[in-house]
Amino acid sequence: MSTPVPRASGTGRGLLVAAIPYLWLIAFFLAPFVIVLRIALSDAATDQPPYAPHFPGIGQLGEFLGALDLENFRLLGDDPLYWQSYLSSLRIAALTTLIALAIGYPLAYAMALAPKRWQGMLLVLVILPFWTSFLIRVYAWIGILRPDGLLDMALMGIGLTSEPVRLLNTDAAVLIGMVYSYLPFMVLPLFGALQKLDGTLLEAASDLGAKPLTTFLTVTLPLSIPGILAGSALVFIPAIGEFVIPDLLGGSDTLMVGKVLWNEFFSNRDWPLASAVAIVLLVVLVLPLMLLQRARGATR
């Protein structure tokens, strides 16, 4: 009885399919990271582009290594502006994630419990803001939060306040804008996780005498942890580097990495220092991503 010979074409096709994600990561993550790191290890210059030295050839590797400059990274630790911007960004991004989770979880849970014929419409309502320009939605919040704006008119109209609350140009306004903008990214993964829950588990818990709160804490919440982790990542990662919302809704005291990057790149034209800020931000994000991946693996 002859042994079948594996076809080489199938093996080659499988290797190609497996290589595509790695090629994608190399082209759109590793290569840009290397370029930014190269700029971060250069010196600022008045030329175009505004950094030196340029990329060396293969024969200039020794000269390239000797020209590397860590001064930009040392400056990030010496100047309080930069490490305070990291801490402020982490704080605002964490608060945004927690508030979005507190609002998004009940909303997603209600959507998952709604009749099937209504779930599609509810999903459309969640993603409906994406049909409008992000910038226009942020500008709309300026009209709502500014002194004598819609919010002040409503609060004074119902007698809760007698003078403008002046939320615009504060960290509270930044939080409001960021929670509003990123809330759908929290709701959609949570809805997907909650919709897949096995209803027989809830019925079994009820038959065994568990109260609704106990059933939620022991069955629903643990099974929805993958959705919580996915939604938290989708909110926290873009929120920590947000630029538009802090710039439009925040004040002069609102300090975030996105604004620092913009100022260094376009106002000061210090590309090496701005690249160093971006590299450190990426490293700061790697740790929560690793913890998230470990937590997701533990829940499987």
From TrEMBL:
Main location group: membrane
A biological process (GO) annotation for this entry?
transmembrane transport
Keywords noted in UniProt: Cell membrane, Membrane, Transmembrane, Transmembrane helix, Transport
Entry's CDD domains?
A: TM_PBP2
What is its membrane topology? Multi-pass membrane protein
Q: Does the keyword Cell membrane apply?
A: yes
Stretches that traverse the bilayer? 21-41, 90-110, 122-142, 172-194, 215-240, 271-292
Q: Which InterPro entries match?
A: MetI-like, MetI-like_sf
Domain named ABC transmembrane type-1: which ranges? Answer: 86-292
* Source organism, top-level taxon: Bacteria
Q: Where in the cell is it found?
A: Cell membrane
Q: Matching SUPFAM superfamilies, A to Z? A: MetI-like
Q: Which GO terms describe its cellular component?
A: plasma membrane
Q: Which family does it belong to?
A: Belongs to the binding-protein-dependent transport system permease family. CysTW subfamily.
Protein's UniProt name: Putrescine transport system permease protein
Q: Give the organism, scientific name.
A: Bosea lupini
